[in-house]
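JOB MANIFEST
job_type = single_chain_structure
chain_count = 1
residues = 188
[input]
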Amino acid sequence: MRYLTALLAIFLISGCTSYSNLEIGEGFDEENESIFVLGIAPSNFKVFLPNGSVKDGEFWRSELASGLGVLAEDGYIVSKAKHDDTIAITGVNQIDGNSSWFGDTYSACNGERSLVFSVPKGKVIYISDVTFKVNQSSLSIQYEDNIERARKYLMKKHPELAEKLEEWDFEFMPIRKSCPQNTVPIYI
């Protein structure tokens, strides 16, 4: 029975998709992956980026998507993703200064719209710069196109990727999931 439980756990973990910041000098499989670049400000916001699919114009989170968020490093998330993945910002967690795990959570749910993009094959793509601002109990979000600032960041951290960086389209779509308890919905 223990063997079966361990095997099931390995199967489930291997099927989960989780994004994290690229290590310096880390490459990617251009036949099966791309790199995406997403600017995040301020730096105390952990961003939840599950993969999923689009059905009837709505983003549906994959059942195997990780619940882990990503903190930007020096203002950017630079991460590998499988080509043909569809990724959305489904929530953010404003991190308390003393913890990398706890803080106020804001979630795009119950049909609220958020940023969604599809991953191509073998590219380095810039999505957007996203700024979050808490206004009492709500969250305002600003999107800005600043590929040159992203390119300068890549020149410092990942120079081999900087010249390959290209703008990539994203859409705002309803996020189809129920709102978790103790979260504040994101209204875009």
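[summary]
The radius of gyration is 17 Å.
The first strand starts at residue 33 and ends at 41.
exit_status = 0
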